[in-house]
Amino acid sequence: MGALPLVVFLPLLGLVATVWSRGRARSLVAMATASATAAAAVALAGRVHGTGAVVTARIPGPAGVEAVLLADGLSTTLVLMTSTVGLAVSAFALREDLAGGWQRPRGYWPTWAALWASLHVLFLAGDLLTAYLMLELIGVTGAALVSLGGDRPVVLAATRYFYAELVASTTTLLGIALLWQRTGTLVFAELGAVDAGELALPVAIVTAGLLLKVPLVPLHGWLPPAHSLAPSAVSPALSAVVVKSAFAVLVRLWFVALPGVVTFPAAQLLGVLGAAAVLWGSVNALRHRGLKLLIAHSTVAQVGLLFLLVPLVAGGGTSAWAGGVMLAVAHALAKAAMLMAGVVLVEDLGRAEVAGLGGAAGRRPMAVLAFGIGAVSLVGLPPSGGFVAKWYLLVASLEAGQWWWIPVIVLGSLLTAGYLMRVVKRAFAPPAEDLPLRSARDARELIALVLASTTLALGLRPTELLELIDVASPFPLMGG
Amino acid sequence: MTGLGVIAGLFAAGFVLVFLGPRVRGRPWGLGAMAASATFALLLAAPRQAAGRWSVAAAGLTLAAMVAFAVGLARRLPGDPPASLDDERW
Description:
The complex is a heterodimer.
Chain A: H1 3-20, H2 23-51, E1 55-60, E2 66-71, H3 73-100, H4 108-124, H5 128-147, H6 152-183, H7 188-191, H8 200-213, H9 223-229, H10 235-240, H11 245-257, H12 264-287, H13 291-306, H14 309-314, H15 319-349, H16 360-363, H17 365-379, H18 385-400, H19 405-427, H20 443-460, H21 463-470
Antiparallel strand pairs in A: 1-2
Helix pairs in contact in A: 1-2, 1-4, 2-3, 3-4, 3-15, 3-20, 3-21, 4-5, 5-6, 6-8, 6-9, 8-11, 9-13, 12-13, 12-19, 13-15, 13-19, 15-17, 15-18, 15-20, 17-19, 17-20, 18-20
Chain B: H1 2-20, H2 27-45, H3 50-75
Helix pairs in contact in B: 1-2, 2-3
């Protein structure tokens, strides 16, 4: 079996194996399949990068229904991102299980495996219906993971999240139905054959649904509570990867399947909403005292930044494609690492507010370093993946002659530095109470640090990833 | 045209119920109406072949499962929701 079917099959194997196993065996089996999935993703990326060609696989279904998986530069990069974060999240959860005596709700590991498999199929989907079905599964498994073993506020947050997902799903499906009616196909490669003018309404409806799923300001209300109330081994996956799922479908639909349907006003509108998200999310991150809410509002802002890809690419700033995909990866690695580091800091100090982090640098230097490296990447300082991504977005602004996005990127970076440096500065302040200067090592710190360090590796050597993104890209950075 | 009217009406009614519904517990009805509308639209659009029907069935069943999950979540929430969700769990 090739690497492409394996990246889907292995998490499904993990799902079945964790349903049937118990206690210690469940966590260990989950970790084994997580490691194998990540290895398969690396092998797939190696093959796509090495050959420079798209890899495809067909999954037969009943009555001649066939799902085509398509590993091009975009999808392979996102699968690699998901697997990297997924492996780290699994290791983090395993370490918690080891320390806590396997008390985790029994649904966690199977649900997490189902979410992982759905994300891979979504990124690799060759048609809109498969992508839609995976978005549904991602919504169900994501909300279930948030609600697992939770008290009333947690269930309420999960319910709001899930209601938003359902409204988004039904809206998206309505648009897909209209699209199918007018084109007779939902295969991405075949959609472009139809006159784009007839598809404006269905694409607008699908886009509205996807914007709620991402979510983009002003549809983001459900995100901060769901992410901040999710368990510690869930929120890194939600904030790092799940928020990219609907975005990936949107850019594939707009720029790969139906480039003719993209108009200047529509692209600018998404850019304006993205800019609003950057400002609104950053201001809220500055305002909140809780560390996890700060990080959740930061996700709202960073997702907004991601949407600047749309007007820039549509306006001829083709570097924004590579920049946007690189930004998605760099954000995922940094954000997951920061959330993991945050868990260690908050548990160690017993305080969830930023103000309570005094002395953290002395007690948990590795966790603070991981948070700091993540912050460097989110701000966009060199050498980090975030810097490379923002560089190409700035270059694209000049290429497209759309200088008005430059102040948004710069201001967003300054605001990001403002709210993240609050945390780092506080970590170096003296402790508020008589805490011992050092505490016992925690393997979760190391997981966070390794993950954060990958953003530095991306900054120091971005060439391979940029070459991978370029494979079958509609907007190659290096000349195709 | 009648089909499109039913779809639009059902979708709008569901939308109103979801956003103006009195409580979290009442909103699955709105979601159910929106899901039914979208599935009906898909049913009209899909090709009249086995493959098309399977696709519609997959989408419809997934949506039905989602609505059932929403009802399940709502049942875990008796009474009025709290005023604020500005809380955290680590």
